[in-house]
Automatic annotation (TrEMBL):
Name of the protein in question: Amino acid transporter transmembrane domain-containing protein
Span of domain Amino acid transporter transmembrane: 10-416
InterPro entries given in the database record: AA_transpt_TM
Role description: Carrier protein involved in proton-driven auxin influx. Mediates the formation of auxin gradient from developing leaves (site of auxin biosynthesis) to tips by contributing to the loading of auxin in vascular tissues and facilitating acropetal (base to tip) auxin transport within inner tissues of the root apex, and basipetal (tip to base) auxin transport within outer tissues of the root apex. May be involved in lateral roots and nodules formation.
Membrane-spanning ranges: 34-57, 94-114, 134-154, 160-184, 242-263, 287-308, 336-356, 362-380, 392-415
Keyword terms: Amino-acid transport, Auxin signaling pathway, Cell membrane, Membrane, Symport, Transmembrane, Transmembrane helix, Transport
Pfam families: Aa_trans
A single GO cellular-component term on record: endomembrane system
Membrane topology reported for the UniProt record: Multi-pass membrane protein
Principal place of residence: membrane
Domain of life per record: Eukaryota
Family: Belongs to the amino acid/polyamine transporter 2 family. Amino acid/auxin permease (AAAP) (TC 2.A.18.1) subfamily.
Subcellular location, record wording: Cell membrane; Endomembrane system
Amino acid sequence: MTRSCKISSNSSWVHCGYHLTTSIVAPPLLSLPFAFTFLGWTAGILFMVIAAVVTFYNYNLISLVLEHHANQGRRMLRFRDMARDILGPPWGRFLVGPIQFALCFCVVVACILLGGQCMKTIYLLSNPNGSMKLYEFIVVFGCFMLILAQMPSFHSLRHINLVSLILCLAYSACAIAGSIYIGYSSKGPKKDYSIKGNTESRIFGAFNAMSIIATAYGNGIVPEIQATLAPPVKGKMFKGLCICYAVIIVTFFGAAISGYWAFGNQAEGLILTNFMDSNGKPLVPKWFIYMTNIFTIAQLAAVGVVYLQPTNEVLEQAFSDPKSPEFSQRNVVPRLILRSLSTAIGTVIAAMLPFFGDINSLIGAFGLMPLDFILPPVFFNSTFRPSKKTPIFWLNVSIAVVFSIVGAIAAVAAVRQIVLDAKTYQLFANFVIGHQGVDEGTSKSSSIRSSQCDAQTRSFRTIVSQHIKSRH
């Protein structure tokens, strides 16, 4: 491996907490109230708790497996390394590796897309008759990310990720405060918590909602984050996860509960959309919407750079010289070119495909579900081989089986949604969050649907959470 792409193992457990928080707690958490519209209060809160417990448990399983193999002299730095050494080389090369790479790059695209949409929201609030198109803002945001992408290693992102942690708390607080303000005001919609739709749409909607919630907790780079820890790593990952999940409890549950309480089954794919009425008039002060979107934009850049790391590693492993110093001209020039190229490609895709959320929802079902819900218990059972008479064996098997079923149904639902939305797809479309003005010939309903799907791409995180579904 080249020096330029080598993971620097100098982080403390606090830095680990920053990295984990940035990779999980992202703006797609603002789509959680939308998931509740398909589940209702009881099922929505219950599944959020289940997803939190399962992912916290699974990430600790991954940590234990990585630590066990490292103590035996086989250090694994990525999901594909784990699949190769534990399940066999074909699993790492042909399945897990490509899944992780595709997933992480899709999160990058989704971050750029949502960042551009947030920038255009600010623009239209200050200049309602402005003529700038969405793709222009996507390019601006992509240039901002291109600068941050030049950070040499994952460890060097620790200060950016600390700021990211503060930002996610900030815009979550704004979302909660805005929802409560509108919920108590006379301007807010009438609260209705009934689940709409016929039997078919309600069933698919429920599984879509489960997938939205599950992927909101997703993290496709846990091994890379653990690899940044300075030895000995024992107990550090657990402490980092505790930091992360403390933030998750405050942000995820706060935004989901307050948003659904305020807007009921009118909650949109991104709760910020509900801060504008049907005529595009803000229901909260304009400065409040400006502030919330600025916080969101800044954190999206950090999330995108974190998920760009696997792409950087693959490219730099192929083109850098391990015998030359990390900051020599031989390594700096290729790194600058390759990182700029990968960011530029992500920016072009985001500008061309503002309906990317529907596609990303399918990738989320095939990507985040296996990496975060299915493979960790499989890795643990294959590594430690607990007796079939022990509860932990059957607990792990149950988690893998249940979420395999949920992932399969979510994939079917994602394909169904792509078919339903296909007629609204348009290259370089000019959709925007929370604004009713759209391009000539584009309907209001397709604008809302697309802004919802854009808001839900996460990654992975898909983002930046995905699975946007129109109400049928």
